[in-house]
Each structure stands twice: as C-alpha cells, then as structure tokens.
Amino acid sequence: MSANEDQEMELEALRSIYEGDESFRELSPVSFQYRIGENGDPKAFLIEISWTETYPQTPPIISMNAFFNNTISSAVKQSIVAKLQEAVEVNLGTAMTYTLFEYAKDNKEQFMENHQPVTSTIPISSIISVETPNTAPSSKKKDKKEQLSKAQKRKLADKTDHKGQLPRGWNWVDVVKLSKTGSKDDE
C-alpha cells in the first residue's frame, strides 16, 4: 500500500476509535492533538502529532508547543518527546498515532515525575495594568457623538418621517422648476 492509503486507513481508524473522546482533537486530516490526563490536572499535557507526506515510512512530527503545556518546563517536554521518539523508531513503517497516544497515557506518571509547574515570569497584575490604558482611550472616542443645534434638529425632523427616514424622492430635482427657468433664459 502507498503512504496515502495507509494514512487514509489510519485516519478512519482514529476517527472511529476516538469518536466522542473529549481528549482527542483532529486539527486537520494529518494533524492530531491528544490531552493526556484530566482537565485541571496539574500533570496533564497535550501531545500534537503531525504526519509527513511519506508517513508511516518516515516518522511523524511530535510537538508539545501547545499553549496548554505552558506550565511544563522545556526539559520535561524534551524528555517526553524523546521517549515518544524511541517508540516511533520501534513502530516505524506501521500506523503509530494511536500507539503513541496510548503509550503516553500508560506512562504519564513516569513522564511527569520531574514536573514542577512553571509559573509565568510576568505577574498577571502587570498584564492587566498594561491592557487597561489601551482600552480606555477607545471608549472615550466611542462616547463622543455629533452635537446638533436646536435649529438643525428641527430642520432634520421636518425632513424625516416618524421613523427618522427621509421621504421618497427628497433629493429629486424638480423638473417643472428647471423647465420654467430654462425657457425664460432662452427668450
């Protein structure tokens, strides 16, 4: 079988296996994400596997750069990817996406044994204080409305109907007036 046929078969199998599984997400027909661990679990992580054109004869691209993994240190991420790469070498030439996800689920505790949650270097309060000034000026601009005088308002009210719309033909040229003035000029 060709690589495309293998990929189509594996894609169909993955869709049927993970149907209804909230941890699995198909980003595209050749890219998948799987969350290892429950939502809210500090040791949960997200694996993204993308197939190359010649997959499964060549290894897939394994990534842990998802935003979900921002609390995991880069050393732990690298060790998880390295262990998954070892599993890729063993399974090269066969459909392995399901195998890799299951391997990660089975070895979650071992993968995350050295995990110490990384906190953001920027405190949240500074992010909020930076964003607040940016939103304030735009709201002032939106609040400023065009002010009309009483005479302008009255004139506008006289032109419009009760719905505030101008009547049909309000800007039409009066043909009768033009024909009368045109004939006087011709004399």
From TrEMBL:
A Pfam family of this chain: RWD
Compositionally biased spans, kind Basic and acidic residues: 155-164
InterPro entries: RWD_dom, RWDD4, UBQ-conjugating_enzyme/RWD
Residues in the signal sequence: none
Disordered, as annotated region: 131-167
Protein name: RWD domain containing 4
The encoding gene: RWDD4
Organism: Suricata suricatta
Entries under SUPFAM superfamilies matching the protein: UBC-like
Domain RWD: 9-111
